[in-house]
Design a protein that fits this description.
Largest sheet: 8 strands, parallel
Shape: globular
Distance between the termini: 22 Å
Structural class: alpha/beta
Radius of gyration: 23 Å
CATH superfamily of the largest domain: Divalent-metal-dependent TIM barrel enzymes
CATH architecture of the largest domain: Alpha-Beta Barrel
Number of helices: 16
Strand order of the largest sheet: 8-6-4-3-2-1-10-9
CATH class of the largest domain: Alpha Beta
Helix content: 40-55%
Strand content: 5-15%
Number of strands: 10
């Protein structure tokens, strides 16, 4: 064991569907045996994980009787207790069954929409029974190939209706639970509704119970769009809406790969860990104009929504799990060293202007008049070098472990 060995207090979690992935893909059959949920709990505990998350169907197979459901849940709860793991998050599978071939909450068929609500209420009950405090919604089939099939505004309205209904259900049941919405641009549909975290954040502002709804950004999903995942997470934190997060790796422009965290784009992974952990001393200081709900650091579960390469056997799956957690801890240590570096601190120190800062801070007619008349020299400002090349080189040297 060393300083980077995963421990329960690190808050690392995996889904039953992640380490339990048998290696099936659209072009090939499974390469590993399907694991029992109770074994996954045991193995994750041995790896140093904090918890395990699940879709309803991951634990209780679709179509199970009430008696079968109760027996499965009883055994799973016993395994959790025996191995000291928790279930911080749960979700509903609204994408695998044929009934959801053209969406769940956004389907044109009211019967499908009703079944989606029914299935989700039962899954929420299961999640709460297992101790979940966050409930994630990923609209795997909420989208189109033939876009003329519905007005996209109708799909948005139907999704809002479903979220309002389910929020009210949670409140009526007096559950201690929040919702986290997960965006994705495409796959399995040609185009998905709410393709980015930014889309989700605006949608949340239109809900009846917006206070209990946040986001669950995923590295792969935002990267598929060619966008900065760090910026998406930062916006979520700035408005106090980062309720859960999915960590993995992804190459830009590819299908959803769900690679091991840190296996692609180490610089972005470094910046993400730095943001989540708030290693920058200035992270705790809310800048002027900051949202009152701003999160200086993320304190929730660190969930790995990824799976081992198809080349791996059972031993390789658990090497993948340990590697995911070790990489996060390694990056956390590198981020702390980077933010403690005096040269880094000097380069990113905020500039102050005693004359101009007060004028920009708040609009008044007097401030506007004074600002219009202020002697600002844009040519001189443009000539000032910022040394971002040096800053980026320092980041790379810290990341490679040759500094700090």
């Amino acid at each position: 064991m060393d300083a980077f060995t995963p421990r329960r207090e690190d808050r690392f979690t995996f889904g039953l569907w992640t380490v339990g992935n048998p290696g099936r893909d659209p072009f090939g059959e499974p390469v590993r045996a399907v694991q029992k949920p109770t074994r996954i709990v045991e193995k994750l505990a041995q790896c140093g994980a904090y918890g395990v998350n699940l879709h309803d169907d991951d634990l209780v197979p679709f179509g199970s009787s009430a008696a079968q459901r109760d027996a499965i849940v009883r055994d799973f709860k016993a395994a959790l207790e025996a191995h000291g793991l928790v279930v911080p998050m749960a979700t509903t599978n609204l994408f695998s069954q044929p009934v959801f071939k053209d969406g769940a909450f956004t389907s044109n068929d009211p019967g499908v929409r009703a079944f989606a609500l029914q299935k989700t209420m039962k899954a929420i009950d299961l999640g709460v029974e297992l101790g979940a405090k966050a409930y994630v919604f990923w609209g795997g089939r909420e989208g189109t190939e033939a876009d003329a099939c519905r007005d996209p505004r109708a799909a948005i309205a139907r999704m809002r209706e479903a979220m309002d209904f389910l929020c009210a259900y949670v409140k009526d049941q007096r559950y201690d639970l929040v919702f986290a919405l997960e965006a994705k641009p495409n796959e399995p549909r040609g185009d998905m509704y709410f393709p980015t975290t930014g889309h989700m954040l605006h949608f949340i502002s239109t809900l009846q119970h917006a206070a209990m709804v946040g986001v669950n950004p995923e590295v792969a999903h935002e990267t598929m769009s060619g966008l900065s995942f760090v910026h998406a997470v930062a916006q979520s934190m700035e408005c106090g809406k980062l309720f859960h997060i999915d960590l993995n790796g992804q190459k830009i422009g590819r299908y959803d790969q769900d690679l091991r965290f840190g296996s692609e784009d180490l610089k972005q992974a470094f910046l993400l860990v730095r943001l989540l952990e708030g290693t920058d001393p200035d992270a705790a200081k809310a800048p002027r104009g900051a949202h009152p709900a701003r999160q200086a650091r993320y304190t929730g579960p660190l969930h790995f929504d990824s799976h081992a390469y198809r080349t791996e056997d059972d031993e390789g799956v658990w090497a993948f799990a340990v590697g995911s957690m070790r990489t996060y801890k390694l990056l956390h240590a590198r981020a702390k060293a980077f933010d403690a570096d005096p040269e880094v601190r000097a380069l990113i120190a905020e500039r102050r202007d005693a004359a101009l800062d007060p004028l920009c801070a708040r609009y008044t007619s007097e401030n506007a008049r004074a600002l219009r008349a202020a002697p600002i020299d844009p040519v001189a400002l443009a000539q000032r070098g910022l040394a971002w090349e040096r800053l980026d080189q320092l980041l790379v040297e810290h990341l490679l472990g040759v500094r700090g």
